[in-house]
């Protein structure tokens, strides 16, 4: 059940509930997006796991599937229910099914308008955009059993947003002020959602004071608006000042680590408490030895 109990998601029996599944998919893909009807149903449907979202009256409002080749697809939510967590619940159900099957990874073809949604859920883009049924798509992949390599700026944006999105009450950022990721709309939107959520939360940012003027204006504005959420400290121990790595971690067991902070290449760990704890302990040691950034008073933070 969702928190407001207005809908629920279940793994469907395709033989019994296929009319409900295809009803949603036909409305979204064929009627709204003009996908040819003959492409909406295929031979993989009887072989796939299907997630079905139902409202309080038992009416179908969303559908998605997980195919035998470990691909999530046919994600469809009726227009009146978009933005209410239905897509998230469908995706969670299919990811849980993939884990239960012992699969190490899943992939999907994301429509371009939904690319940020999947990025925030740990899917990294791969390759160039392409058209499928006349609609722009992006191939994306998520590992379920270990680290994902982050190799380019698009993947770095997705990795950073994923860690922020999954945070419960605490985020730890070890970055340079000129880090391009802090100016990316996807990352800033994820930070804004976390910082304005209705619960106690904290963003700890380790930053050399010399880097303060390089902070993006949008990030500074967010920190100025929410000074009780954002804490900035400057490393002062000589060894800490020489640390060249960068990292984004949370209290959910996720982290994106970059051995060379000036580069985006690194590893994204999701649902990996042991690895995230290791990074958190390193961050804590530096944080406790650091001091508040005096330059914040100049910036008004």
UniProtKB/TrEMBL annotation:
PROSITE patterns: GNAT
GO molecular function: acyltransferase activity, transferring groups other than amino-acyl groups
InterPro entries on file: Acyl_CoA_acyltransferase, Bact_Acetyltransf, DUF7931, GNAT_dom
Signal peptide: none
Superkingdom of source: Bacteria
Keywords for the protein's UniProt record, in alphabetical order: Acyltransferase, Transferase
UniProt key word Acyltransferase: yes
N-acetyltransferase domain: residues covered: 9-145
One matching Pfam family: Acetyltransf_10
Residue ranges the record marks as coiled coil: none
Protein name (Swiss-Prot/TrEMBL): Acetyltransferase
